């Protein structure tokens, strides 16, 4: 098991696998996906897929291997706690013909950062990592590791505060691997009906091709804006040009992201 190495290559696309029966049953609200989407957007990494699956080994194996093949980087959330249904580490190890073993650095950090908690067998279970994984400790606040399997599968906890802190502290590593071109978003509001602007937007999207994406989002029972039109891409000047062009065609006006919330 190696520690503190880095994945090589430029990251352009990403996927997320949210693991947990509690998400699928509605008991727990998934906020990690929203955080991850904003995090990757700001890095210029295109989040292309999010899948939510149960705590079932067969589903975990199939999903993570498929996503790992198709996308540059994969993030998992959940299933790495101390109880019997926390099977993410062992399932991903199985997916790549590996086994889990106790990670000594993780157990040492448990004792140092949480000395008031006894290192029981249940707690030690959270240090059973895939033996060939790369292990990082991005946060000094938490003992929880970020384990990387198959060079691009990043295994993260489901607890939102820890999930978010680990990614925030790991950001410098992703910045070196991303393309360096961040995404930008321009928003235009209009009081016209979505059906009335559909052809205008379709024609503009055909002109833009893959250089940018245009989306439209109705705002129900809103006296200030009926539809918000979104322009997303990496060429900020191009987005500005088309936002102004479309605004003129739909009697629109520029709006900020906070006013769109």
UniProtKB/TrEMBL annotation:
Domain MoaB/Mog: 15-177
Gene Ontology biological-process entries: flavin-containing compound metabolic process
Pfam families: FLAD1_M, MoCF_biosynth
Entry GO MF terms: FAD diphosphatase activity
Domain of life: Eukaryota
PANTHER family reported for this sequence: MOLYBDOPTERIN BINDING DOMAIN PROTEIN (AFU_ORTHOLOGUE AFUA_5G11210)
Descriptive protein name: Molybdopterin binding protein
Originating species: Basidiobolus meristosporus CBS 931.73
Organism ancestry: Eukaryota, Fungi, Fungi incertae sedis, Zoopagomycota, Entomophthoromycotina
């Amino acid at each position: 098991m190696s520690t503190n190495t880095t994945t090589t290559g430029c990251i352009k696309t990403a996927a997320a696998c949210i693991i947990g029966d509690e998400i699928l049953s509605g008991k727990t609200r998934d906020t990690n996906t929203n955080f991850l989407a904003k995090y990757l957007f700001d890095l210029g990494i295109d989040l292309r897929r999010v899948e939510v699956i149960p705590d079932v080994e067969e589903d975990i194996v199939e999903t993570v291997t498929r996503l790992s093949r198709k996308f540059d980087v994969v993030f998992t959330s959940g299933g790495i706690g101390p109880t019997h249904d926390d099977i993410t580490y062992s399932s991903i190890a199985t997916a790549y013909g590996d086994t889990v073993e106790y990670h000594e650095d993780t157990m040492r950090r448990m004792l140092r950062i949480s000395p008031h908690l006894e290192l029981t067998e249940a707690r030690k279970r959270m240090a059973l990592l895939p033996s060939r994984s790369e292990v990082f400790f991005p946060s000094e606040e938490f003992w929880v590791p970020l384990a990387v399997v198959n060079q691009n599968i990043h295994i993260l906890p489901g607890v939102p505060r820890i999930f978010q802190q680990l990614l925030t502290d790991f950001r410098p590593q992703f910045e070196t691997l991303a393309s360096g071109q961040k995404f930008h978003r321009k928003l235009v509001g209009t009081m016209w009906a979505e059906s009335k602007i559909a052809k205008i937007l379709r024609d503009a999207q055909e002109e833009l091709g893959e250089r940018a994406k245009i989306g439209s989002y109705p705002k129900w029972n809103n006296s200030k804006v009926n539809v918000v039109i979104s322009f997303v891409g990496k060429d900020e000047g191009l987005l500005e040009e088309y936002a102004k062009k479309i605004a003129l065609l739909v009697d629109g006006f520029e709006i900020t992201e906070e006013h769109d919330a």
